[in-house]
Amino acid sequence: MLAFTQRPAAALLAAGISLWAMTARSQSPSFNEKGITRPALEHYLDHAVTMTEFLSVDPYASDAPYPHKEDDIRLIRNIGAKFIGRAIYRWGGESVLNNKDFLSRAKQLVQEVHKNDPEVIFQAALFEQISEQVNTIPVPAWAFKALGLPAEDRHFQYAGMLNTKGKLVDHWSKGNSVPDITRVETQLWFMFLAGTYMEVGCEALHLGQIALIGMEDPQLTEWAAFLEKLRAYAKDHTRHHWVLLDAHTPSGGMVVNDKSLLDFNSFPLRIKSVPAHPQEGILEMGFTDALFGRSKGGITPSGWKAASMPYLVELDNFGISDHPGVPDTTTIYPWGFDEISWFYQQPEQYRNNWLRYAHQWVADHDANGHLQMPVTRVVTLGRKKPRLKYRANTRSAQCPDGMNDEATIKSIWQAADARKK
Asked: What is the annotated signal peptide range for this record (predicted)?
């Protein structure tokens, strides 16, 4: 077991002092305060995994999310993962951010991985969901300062993050809404989350469904202004003086005056059912709102121009449909399930072969696309069934729920890397 110990990270964060400012910083010429080069970015995207809540260790939870952290650290090193996606976030349950141990243990996990490979980047997420639990969290003075606001002695205000016209209020359930980016309170909340995750050691942020959060910002004016402040904060609070930003971009990107607000785009794979072959799923250009061939171009935040922005595609989780098991070829639910839940139900050999197929298909159809490999993700098999967890780890006593896809991911990457030499 990892010997977790309490560290002063939370106290320093509350005081607005960054541990990164107190330690040596990486000075890579390809990733620094000026941004990241395209080859360096694509190196990370080519070795990206989804490891949902890898950094979440709640000492007070009776059912801690995704145990076997030691084996996950081994897996990261074994397969050569460089970008750990969705490693920490909140979807409700925000009050845990008041727990100093929750944050210090996340930071220790980052440090454990960096002992093996200091190149690894961790991604946190700022999602399109807030609950009334945000009211339990004090607003730190540094968050006000980062937005250029006078400090106040108060807690966050759930009501202040809601759309004033009622759009997407209680969208997820009663007391669980989509925050509106045009509200100052939402920007304050997102700045707090971003700064908290940077202090843990995250150098990338996924912004979730930016179209929902930007319900009143069709011209991206508020998004652009907020992200400029977010990047300014990152210059003094990350190892590379930079934060990599992405979001789910159904419109193809976040481009304003030929400039992308994001470092790269991301989207679900959009797997299509094959009715003639039970449980089979394929990828197809133009299927529903798939991003293949649609990633908008522009000048990146790092200053280089892309005819089409690089992007990640992943096996997403978004819940079960109302027709599980039915191969409807017009919806985003392969065989009636979300993508990772469909994948979870397939035999081991099919999963391994499908990862090889998907990796090659993306490379053949859009050179700007990169497959983010599934390692850890929530699975939903039915509304009255318990939520399960997909684990790519090689099954062992250290990870008894592993599904043996780890070796395949490693071999796919090794072969792809060899072709580039």
From this structure: 1-23
Rounded Cα distance between 1 and 412, Å, is 30
In a domain, 11, yes or no: no
Q: Residue for token digits 């202040």?
A: 160
Looking at the chain, the whole-number percentage of residues with pLDDT higher than 70 is 91
CA distance 292 to 366: 6
Q: What is the CA radius of gyration of the chain?
A: 21
Q: How much is the average pLDDT of 102-127?
A: 96
For residue 263, tell me if it sits in a domain.
yes
DSSP annotation of 142 reads: H
Q: Are 267 and 249 in contact (CB under 8 A)?
A: yes
Instruction: Give yes or no for a contact between 136 and 94, defined as CB atoms under 8 angstroms apart.
Output: yes
Give the full edge-to-edge strand order of the sheet including 259-260: 255-256, 259-260, 298-299, 305-306
The owner of tokens 């989350």 is 193
Write the DSSP symbol of residue 140.
P
Tokens of 306: 């892309």
CA pair distance 328, 231, nearest whole angstrom: 42
Give the 3-state secondary structure of residue 5. coil
Range of the domain at 342: 31-420
* Residue 383 CA: distances (Å) to CA of 175, 236, 261, 320, 379: 20, 45, 37, 7, 11
**What are the helix (H) ranges across 136-255?**
141-146, 184-200, 210-213, 221-234
How many structural domains does the chain have?
1
Residue 85 in domain:
yes
Kindly report which listed range (59-68, 76-85, 364-373, 407-416) carries the lowest average pLDDT score. Answer: 59-68
Residue pair 336/328 in contact by the 8 Å Cβ criterion: yes
Give the least confident one: 144-158, 221-235, 324-338, 375-389: 375-389
Tell me, what amino acid is at 278? P
What mean pLDDT, rounded, does the chain reach? 92
Residue 20 lies in a domain: no
Report the C-alpha gap between 88 and 51 in whole angstroms.
9
Matching residue, tokens 């061939």: 293
pTM: 0.92
CA distance 178 to 213: 6
Contacts by 322-329, CB closer than 8 A, 24 or more apart: 324/381, 324/382, 327/273, 327/274, 327/275, 327/278, 328/273, 329/272, 329/273, 329/275
Domain containing 232 — which CATH number? 3.20.20
- For residue 342, pLDDT over 50 is answered with yes
Please give the helix or strand (H or E) that residue 179 lies within, else none.
Answer: none
